[in-house]
Design a protein that fits this description.
Layout lengths: L4 H25 L15 E10 L6 E3 L9 E12 L5 E4 L11 E4 L4 H37 L1
Antiparallel strand pairs: 1-2, 1-3, 4-5
Helix pairs in contact: 1-2
Length: 150
Amino acid sequence: MRIFAGMATSASALSAEKLRIDIVAKNVANMNTTRTPEGGPYQRRKVVFSELVEGAARNRFVSLPSRGVGRGVGRGVMASQVVVDDTPPRLVHDPSHPDANAEGFVAMPEINLVNEMVDLITATRAYETNVQVLNASKSMKLRALEIGRG
């Protein structure tokens, strides 16, 4: 129903930003993890977003990352994938560490806490903004119903 389209757009953004917050928390929690099941140190993760558009030929939502005329109407955002950052690990000299190599260097995750905090603040602000949009939309719809009663 078109009356709830704006709310659905904000709801999709809430879901996407929640995942982004979770991924940032995972990165921060693992910034000192030197051993993973895949082998080697933890590698930073990033969320990739795609636009949700309503398909012109079908009445369902599809992800169309390309730009162009006639590609449908935007209906929100989705987290299309979580990718692993391929930045090489940083080497820290710590011969006493159990994962140190023969020269005494330990491969540590290349995670910058400042960058993670900026990502966290950005995701939190986007989340809060979409909550405000949802509340404003709900308030306007309730006021419209009250006008109809009067």
